[in-house]
Amino acid sequence: MTTPEATEERDSAAPTADPAAPLGPPPEPSAEPATPEEKEPAASSIAFTLTLVVLVGLALFGRKIFAGLFTDDGVRTWATMFVGVTVQAMPFLVLGVLLSAALTAFVPASFFAKALPKHPALAVPVASMSGVVLPGCECASVPVSAALMNRGVTPAAAIAFLLSAPAINPVVLASTAVAFPGQPKVVVARAVTSLAVSMMLGWLWLLTGKGSSWLKMPKNRHAEGTGKLEVFRSSMLHDFLHAGGFLVVGAAAAATLNVVVPRQWLDHVASNLLISVVVLGLLAVLLAICSEADAFVAASLTQFSLTARLAFMVVGPIVDVKLIALQTGTFGPKFAVRFAPATFVVAILSSLLVGWWLL
Fold first, then answer.
1. I need a labelling partner for 326 at 20 to 30 A (CA). Which of 23, 44, 140, 190 fits?
2. CA 325/CA 347 separation, integer angstroms
3. Residue 21's pLDDT is what?
4. What is the greatest pairwise CA distance in the chain?
5. What is the structure's pLDDT at 276?
6. Taking a C-beta distance cutoff of 8 angstroms, is the pair 116, 258 a contact?
7. Cα dist. 72→63, 81, 131, 251, 260 in Å?
8. How far apart are CA 245 and CA 239, in angstroms?
9. pTM for the full model?
10. In sequence order, what DSSP letters do the residues of 166-207 get, joined into one string?
11. Which residues have CB under 8 Å from 109's CB, separation 6+?
12. How high is the mean pLDDT in each 10-residue block of the chain (359 residues)?
């Protein structure tokens, strides 16, 4: 039984609630996630258009553009190398992009969290080895590793997968075997070196980065509830445009290097093992060629030793300009500014050691 005093207290308490407060969830959070999705198709369309313009321009006017720079023999050599590298690498690039998009769309990240050991030190080598059977180009490995972290995988294991997946997957090893026919030791050296680098960087993160504020936990590139076919389509388009454009640039740069740079300069650099390894490592960082295609560019640099070309193939898939940009946007600048130099140094030293041992 309620008293008049209790009724008055209840009535007086009711108006204290803010009458302007919304009854349901605010509309702003639901509207914000749609913004990246609206911008991405526009960015992809622009990139696709620019790539087509560059390809058509080179096909139609390449001979006239370079006629003033090269001799007739130089133009023919440049065109032969450019077309040869591009045509040889394109099937492997397309296959790698398709498999990577399928991995992103149809294999849930929770699968990796359940498959990896709970102990971080043991999860690192298992994550590195999974790159052998789970293909993915370096463009796709960044969002995949970000998804792994979001699903509870230890960052060290996700980093190991980030480095190994684009470097030792079956498509990359097959393309390396095709680019270096009759030289299986090159394939073995690439697999061993890349696997060792991925594990060392994963363990190095455990020793120095655990509990630090370097790593910004990434957000999923695709909105929750996006259909698998849509994720597959957008991932395939995004990765092919990025990787295809860099392949064209890399093929053109390799052809230009062989035609423009005097032969004695290349011979001088190639004659010093340490300098040639560092130079080709830096070249891999700048060219940013997709891992499914870089073996064909490396094979065309015949002036350099196998060890130097191994460094080119090891460095490219794990640290280059596009990966630094992707890692900065996904994991934050504090991560990228420390991770990229450490990865480059470990890759160079590992290439020298494995090259001395196997090549």
1. 190
2. 19
3. 45
4. 106
5. 93
6. no
7. 9, 14, 45, 19, 13
8. 10
9. 0.68
10. HHHSHHHHHHHHHHSTT-HHHHHHHHHHHHHHHHHHHHHHHH
11. 144, 147, 148, 150, 151, 153
12. 50 47 46 42 55 61 59 71 72 70 72 78 89 67 70 82 86 91 94 94 82 60 66 76 66 73 78 92 83 86 92 91 74 84 94 93
Provide the 3-class DSSP secondary structure of residue 108: coil
Distance from C-alpha of 320 to C-alpha of 324, rounded to nearest angstrom? 6
Q: Which residue has the tokens 């454009």?
A: 245
CA separation for the pair 294, 236 (Å, rounded): 19
Tokens found for residue 302 = 């015949």
- In the chain, the amino acid numbered 189 is A
Q: HSE on the CB side for 108, CA within 13 Å?
A: 9
pLDDT of 321: 74
Structure tokens at 341: 């130099």
In whole angstroms, give the CA distance from residue 262 to residue 46.
37
